[in-house]
Amino acid sequence: MNDDFDVTVLHSLRVTDLPPSAVDLARAARTGRRRLRLRYTAVAGVVAALILLSTVAAAVVVPRLGGTPAVPLPVPSSTVAPPLGGCVMGPETKPWMSHVPWMVNDDSWRVAVYLDNVDAVRWIDGKSELIRRVPSGFMVADASRSGDFAGVDNRNKQAWVYHGGRFNRLTLPVDGVVTVRDMNDRGDVVGVVGATVVVWPAGHPGRPRVLTAPDAGGSAAVGIAADGTVVGNVSGGTPFLWHPDGTGEPLPTPAGVAGGAVGALVGDWATGPGVRWNIRTGRADVVTGVAGTGTPDLYGRVYGQSTGPGAPPVAWVNGRIEAIPEPSGEHAFVLFVRSDGRALSGSRSNGVLEWTCGG
Which among 18, 35, 123, 168 is least surrounded, fewest beta carbons within 10 Å? Predict the structure, then answer.
């Protein structure tokens, strides 16, 4: 997203009052990871409290933007991450971030989408538009950098992708409850129908592709990479990778890591409790000092809450833990990580908080 967004635009927003909502941080932490956004992964062992946030639904009605091409994200050439460079706290400047847990954003924060009563509001590069005629009961689940977004109905019986200025129904190849888990930048959607992982190729919502599991125990997707590689888990919580051609194999679990089910994917990096995988090289690294799954960035740095006393926010960088500052006398939680790691967003005891990293 555009980090130079002019907050004075708030003065022209149309405001619709909603009742105050208790934000479930476990769900919100997964929101920041791409995405429930209907797929929240808890920060294990860290958060048991609820933080009350007053949520205001707001939208500027502007000419329809339509999906706009996104410049490809740079692919790091090294598996050694650059230093984080320190993080500085600042006030939250992105109005869409106040709509947790109903808001989703893409990894780069270029696009954000949330529901405003029966309509959807989409932000692209800091400009908003109101999208009407949202399917009944629609719940947005994820967005791509091109401006497309996908979701399901409130009974998890139907799913849609918003593309080309309209909602397109996703064909379900089998019966069962449907969830949308992730979208990549070209618009491929991955989800789960019943206990089956399904990919809907970009621009072809009526041509679902079923990814087979190694046994009959069922499977679940977590994320889809830029080239169509899918990561998720199969029966027993075994981390698994499906290649773009549909073939697949288990992801390795490092010695000393118990479980390690995949919980997040950004770029070439997937994370689970105590482990980080590079899906290109197949390498698995033990991650210590970060509770739960954590959230990776494009460089393989992992963000979350410390496993130490007080569980402050931290980043794991090349095997070392780097502190992320908290407000004096308050506790803070990292919920959203921009894909380049230069911006973070989260919560504090009396609202939301933003960090700028990298100096």
Answer: 18
Q: What is the CA radius of gyration of the chain?
A: 19
The partner residues of 15 in beta bridges, in order of sequence, read: 58
What does pTM read for this prediction?
0.80
What the block records as the tokens of 1 is 């997203």
Say which residue the tokens 């075994």 belong to: 238
Cβ(47)–Cβ(32) below 8 Å: no
Cα 230 to Cα 326: distance, rounded to the nearest angstrom: 35
> Which helix or strand (DSSP H or E) is residue 264 part of?
strand 264-266
What is the residue-wise DSSP string for 96-107?
GGGGTTT-EE-T
Pair 131, 162: CB distance under 8 Å: yes
**Domain-wise residue ranges, the chain:** 7-71+92-274
For the record, the structure tokens of 162 come out as 């918003």
Residue 47 identity (one-letter amino acid): V
Please state, in angstroms and rounded to a whole number, the distance separating the CA atoms of residues 116 and 335.
Answer: 22
**Out of 45-54, 234-243, 347-356, least confident range:** 45-54
Q: How far is residue 69's CA from residue 192's CA, in Å, rounded to a whole number? A: 27
- Identify the band that residue 116 occupies on the pLDDT scale cut at 50, 70 and 90: confident
| Angular region, 147: left φ>0, alpha ψ -120 to 50, beta rest | left
Q: Position 244: which residue type? A: P
DSSP strand pairing (284-286 vs 295-296): unpaired
Mean pLDDT computed over every residue of the chain: 80
| Amino acid code (one letter) for 273 | P
- Tokens 């598996």, located at residue: 79
Average of per-residue pLDDT across 338-351: 90
- The alpha carbon torsion through 259, 263, 265, 269 (nearest 10 deg) reads -30
Give exposure, 204-218, as e/b (b: 16+ Cβ within 10 Å). Answer: ebeebbebebeeeee
Alpha carbons 191 and 205: distance in angstroms, whole number: 12
Query: SS3 sequence, 301-327?
Result: CEEEEECCCCCCEEEEECCEEEECCCC
Q: What CATH number was assigned to the domain covering residues 7-71+92-274?
A: 2.120.10
